[in-house]
Amino acid sequence: MTIVVTKRADFVSPSITESSKISLRYIVKGTNNESDAREALIQEASLSYSGLIPTEYKLEWQGPEIWYGEVTYGLREGSALPGESGFGGPEDDTGGWTFETSGITEHITKSKETRNRYPISTDEFAAPDLGGIIGFDKGEVQGIDIKVPIFKWTEVYSLPDSLVTDSYKAQLHDLTGKVNNNNFRMFQAGEVLFEGARGSKSKGENWRITYSFAGQANSIQEVTLYPAANVATAISVNIDKRGWEYVWFKYNDKEVTHKDAGVDVKSLVKLPAWAYVEKIYDYANFALLGI
Questions:
Q1: Using CA atoms, how far apart are residues 62 and 67, in angstroms rounded to an integer?
Q2: How many domains would you assign to the chain?
Q3: How confident is the model over 149-187, as pLDDT tens digits?
Q4: pLDDT at res. 149
Q5: Are residues 9 and 65 in the same domain?
Q6: CA gap 261, 192 in Å, rounded
Q7: CA distance 144 to 290
Q8: Are residues 134 and 233 in the same domain?
Q9: How far is it, in rounded angstroms, from Cα 233 to Cα 228?
Q10: Are residues 133 and 226 in the same domain?
Q11: Residues 73, 21 contacting (CB under 8 angstroms)
Q12: Domain span at residue 252?
């Protein structure tokens, strides 16, 4: 049976109180399993409310497959009231945000463009057009390692024991290595990889959890392919690639004509015939992170 989460009849969006806490009430139907009910409640609840974040999720069993749920929103530890902080991200007394734009290494076999080739076509010896392949030698395409721009960042939160349950830890484990299926922070669906979380706790204190992410932009890549046996038959295509997908090319042997001692000769080269976009990571709802 599908689990359904709805607002209770007494659900009212209250104003921010003096203590900066808000509680919103729900009904969860369709399961007798508390972990499943909690997960459904987390998915339904907003990631923020009036500038506050979820600090506690409560469930009360009311009968077969019926639960009352309550989500309490409050300030992050060490943060100001909504509107008083100049930056809307996570803050606490131990950290907040870190980021870097160092990028990652990726191996490519085709360039965006062959800007020049030598000798030029007017010379007695002319370099053939290889369709942008890189490092073609002895019948093989060698390619090259390049830096791909990646935005990596961490967010640090101070969370109470009531939120960091065994079920929540298992949820973090399940989400690690997943890509966002909806917009997340400043990124579109498909652009963010959750690299995992690291938590620590001292006796009598809240959990300090660091969440690590990496962002890679979605893109449209215009490339030229040579799918037919005749090299002259080239087509231009726009490859739709989500951030963490991988594009690779199948190369076929093609004959190209070029100058050798002033005479037109044919050489066998490899040109990109087909392109493939591969899904590497599974997608997930990052609302389950609860941050």
A1: 5
A2: 2
A3: 889 999 998 888 878 888 889 889 999 999 999 888 889
A4: 81
A5: yes
A6: 53
A7: 40
A8: yes
A9: 6
A10: yes
A11: yes
A12: 105-147+219-278
Same domain, 1 and 69: yes
**In terms of C-beta density within 10 A (0-12 exposed, 13-18 middle, 19 or more buried), how is residue 276 classed?**
exposed
Residue 229 clears pLDDT 50, i.e. is over it:
yes
Under the phi-then-psi rule, with left for phi > 0, alpha for psi from -120 to 50, and beta for the rest, what region is 132?
Answer: left
Render the burial of 138-154: b for 16+ CB within 10 Å, e for the rest: eeebebeeeeeebbbbb
Show which of 26, 59, 74 is a domain's final residue.
74
Is 199 inside a domain boundary?
no
* Cis status, amide bond into 119, omega within 30 of 0: yes
What angle, 0 to 180 degrees and rounded to 10, lies between the N-to-C axes of helices 34-44 and 166-175?
60
The H-or-E segment that residue 158 falls in is: strand 151-159
Pairing verdict, β 140-141 and 136-137: antiparallel
Residue 168 inside a domain? The answer is: no
> Are residue 257 and residue 140 in the same domain, yes or no?
yes
| pLDDT tens digits along 36-69 | 898 888 888 776 666 677 778 889 998 899 899 9
Rounded Cα gap, residues 94 and 85, in angstroms? 17
First to last CA, the chain: 28
Contact 26, 5 (CB under 8 A): yes
Percent of the chain residues past pLDDT 90, beyond the cut: 23
Residue ranges in the chain assigned as alpha helix (H): 34-44, 166-175
CA distance 277 to 238: 12
**b/e code 204-220 from CB counts within 10 Å (16+ = b):** eebbbbbbbbbbbeeee
184: tokens are 């997340």
Token pair recorded at residue 231: 């090299």
Residues 6 or more apart whose Cβ sits within 8 Å of residue 1: 30, 31, 65
171 domain residue, yes or no: no
